[in-house]
Amino acid sequence: MNPTLKGVTYVSVWVLLWGTAASIADFVLLERGAYEAGTGGQAITFVSYGIAAVVLGVRLSGRFLSPATQQAEGQALEQEEKG
Predict the structure, then answer these.
(1) Residue 45: how many CB atoms within 10 A of its CB?
(2) What b/e readout covers 46-82, taking b as 16+ CB neighbours within 10 angstroms?
(3) C-alpha–C-alpha distance, residues 79 and 76, integer Å
(4) Inter-residue contact 48 to 25 (CB < 8 Å)
(5) What does 11-73 look like in DSSP terms, one character per residue?
(6) Residue 83, helix vs strand vs coil
(7) What's the confidence (pLDDT) of residue 25?
(8) Which pLDDT score, from 0 to 100, does residue 66 have?
(9) pLDDT tens per residue across all 83 residues of the chain
(10) What's the CA gap between 42 and 26, in Å, rounded?
(11) Which pLDDT score is estimated for 59?
């Protein structure tokens, strides 16, 4: 896979994960009356989940975006083309 496309896909998946997790947490907190919609509590929820997503995304990026993985994929493609 093209490294640029792989990077864009990686970031897009993290944005979707962040939005989903933060929205679920926000829904639960709103239902329980922890805060009202549009208040600072809601902003804190989304910002804190965003920070967590960035930290996890950066820490895990080596597993998905490492040059070794790209080299292995390139070698596998070369073997497929030859075989």
Answers:
(1) 19
(2) eeebbeebeeebeeeeeeeeeeeeeeeeeeeeeeeee
(3) 5
(4) no
(5) HHHHHHHHHHHHHHHHHHHHHTTSS-TTSHHHHHHHHHHHHHHHHHHHHHHHHHH-HHHHHHH
(6) coil
(7) 97
(8) 81
(9) 888 899 999 999 999 999 999 999 999 999 999 999 999 999 999 999 999 999 999 999 988 888 765 556 666 666 677 75
(10) 7
(11) 94
The DSSP symbol for 81 reads H
Q: What's the one-letter identity of residue 64? A: F
Map tokens 């009202």 to a residue.
36
Task: Give the integer Cα–Cα distance in Å for 17 and 23.
Answer: 10
